[in-house]
Amino acid sequence: MMSKDLSVARTVSNEVMNTLHHIFQAEMAGIVRYLHYSFMIMGHNRIPIQKWFRDQALEGMRHAEVIGEKITSYGGHPPMISEKIEESNQHGVHALLEESLKFEMETLALYKKLVSQAGDDIALEELARDFVRQETEHTDEVRKMLRRDV
Q1: Whole-model pTM?
Q2: Please, what are the domains in the chain?
Q3: What is the pLDDT of residues 68-110, one digit of tens each?
Q4: Do residues 104 and 33 touch, judged by C-beta distance below 8 A?
Q5: Of all helices (H) and strands (E), which one includes residue 144?
Q6: pLDDT over 70 for what percent of the chain?
Q7: How far apart are CA 72 and CA 47, in angstroms?
Q8: Cα 63 vs. chain centroid, distance in angstroms?
Q9: Is there a contact between 135 and 111 (Cβ–Cβ < 8 Å)?
Q10: For residues 127 and 73, what is the distance between their CA atoms, to the nearest angstrom?
Q11: Which spans in 9-121 are helix H?
Q12: What Cα–Cα distance (Å) separates residue 18 from each residue in 110, 133, 135?
C-alpha cells in the first residue's frame, strides 16, 4: 500500500494564482499609498484623518499577510513588488479620498474576480467573499466621507 505525501501543497489554477498575486500586489501598494497619505494630511482635522489613513495601511498589511499565506499554501511565491502607485501630487483630503475610492474599487474588483474563480475551493471562496464584504464597507465609508451634503 502506497502512502500519500501529505506535505505536498494544494494546487490551484494559474488563473487563481495570478489573481492572488495581483491582490497581494494591490494590498502592498495600499500600505504604501495610505501611509503616504497619512504623512500628507495637514490642517485642523489632521489627527483623525491621519489616523484613518494609518488604520487603512495596517488593514492592507493584514490583508497582504492573509493573501501571502494563501499563496504559499498553494505552493506559490508572493511577489516582491507592489503594483505601480501613481502620485497625483494632490494632497487635499478630498483628492486623497477620491484616489482612495478608485483604489478600493479596483481592489474590490480583484476580490470579486477571485470569488468567481474559486470553483469548488470553498475555503478560498469564503475568504474572497469576506474580503469583498470588507472592501465594500471601505468603499461605502469613503463615499460617505466624500459627501458634502451635510
Answers
A1: 0.90
A2: 14-146 (1.20.1260.10)
A3: 999 999 999 999 988 888 888 888 999 999 999 999 999 999 9
A4: no
A5: helix 122-146
A6: 93
A7: 37
A8: 6
A9: yes
A10: 14
A11: 14-40, 46-73, 93-117
A12: 11, 21, 20
Name residue 28's amino acid.
M
Q: How far apart are CA 73 and CA 14, in angstroms?
A: 14
Phi/psi region, residue 121 (left: phi>0; alpha: psi -120 to 50; beta: rest), is: beta
Distance in angstroms (rounded) separating the CA atoms of residues 11 and 55: 33
pLDDT per position as a tens digit, 12-29: 899 999 999 999 999 999
* C-alpha cell read off for 124: 478560498
Tell me which residue has cell 498589511: 61
Of 27, 34, 40, 65, which Cα lies nearest the Cα of 52? Answer: 34
Q: Given CA atoms 23, 79, 50, 99 in this order, what sign does their dihedral have?
A: negative
Nearest-angstrom CA–CA distance, 111 and 106? 9
Q: Confirm if 119 and 84 have CB atoms less than 8 A apart.
A: no
